[in-house]
């Protein structure tokens, strides 16, 4: 019972932290029973977002917590929330390539992460402490790394964190 309450508490913190809000307007949908979603699904690519940051990667990125599996608009995701600091959500979208994602042009900057085409998405005028890096994964798939600072300030820091996490996750993508 205590672990069930802990899991519920984690989900409440994740929802309140807003780190699951995608730059493309995605809304988090937790697993029905509050438990982490299964590590594998019917995906033919089999990319589990929770395995994209190993313990060394998490340490490099300043993430001191384990990820929590979830689903966002039918896509598998993993959420890490560092209490009172920031949150990271990695979403694997196996149906939409980078070109298919709806992103406001004025907030997106084309870039590369490793050898992959990517977009860095941040609304500098809003200065809301959020940033995303969207990585292409073939023509019909993408990976989205969203970072939200808990205080909803310092967008450049959120982007620095998102770029760091994208660089750590990118080599593990097919």
Radius of gyration: 15 Å
Mean pLDDT: 79
Overall number of strands: 8
The portion of residues assigned to helices is 10-25%
How does the helix and strand content classify structurally? alpha+beta
- List low-pLDDT spans: 1-45
Head-to-tail CA distance between termini: 39 Å
Q: What is the total number of structural domains? A: 1
What is the overall shape? globular
Number of helices: 3
Query: Could you spell the SSE succession in H and E letters?
Result: HEHEEEEEEEH
Largest sheet: 8 strands, antiparallel
Describe the overall structure.
Helix 2 (55-61) runs antiparallel to helix 3. The chain has helices at 2-17, 55-61, 155-169, and strands at 28-29, 68-72, 75-82, 86-93, 108-113, 116-121, 130-136, 142-149. It has one domain (2-172). It is α+β, with helices and mostly antiparallel strands and 174 residues long. It is globular, with a radius of gyration of 15 Å. It has an 8-stranded antiparallel sheet with strand order 1-2-3-4-8-7-6-5, sandwiched between helices. 22% of the residues lie in helices and 29% in strands. The chain is built from 3 helices and 8 strands; from the N terminus they run αβαβββββββα.
């Amino acid at each position: 019972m205590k672990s069930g309450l802990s899991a519920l508490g984690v989900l409440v913190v994740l929802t309140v932290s807003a780190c699951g809000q995608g730059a493309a307007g995605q809304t988090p949908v937790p697993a029905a029973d509050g438990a982490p979603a299964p590590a594998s699904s019917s995906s033919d690519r089999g990319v589990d977002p929770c395995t994209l940051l190993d313990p060394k990667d998490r340490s490099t990125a300043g993430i001191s917590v384990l990820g929590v599996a979830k689903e966002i608009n039918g896509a598998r995701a993993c959420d890490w929330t560092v209490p009172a600091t920031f949150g990271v959500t990695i979403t694997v979208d196996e149906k939409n390539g980078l070109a298919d994602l709806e992103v406001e042009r004025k907030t997106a900057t084309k870039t590369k992460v490793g050898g992959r085409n990517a977009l860095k998405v941040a609304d500098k005028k809003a200065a809301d402490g959020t940033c995303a890096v969207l990585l292409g994964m073939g023509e019909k798939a993408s990976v989205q790394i969203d970072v939200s600072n808990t205080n909803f300030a310092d967008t450049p820091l959120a982007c620095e964190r998102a770029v760091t996490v994208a660089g750590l996750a990118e080599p593990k993508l097919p």
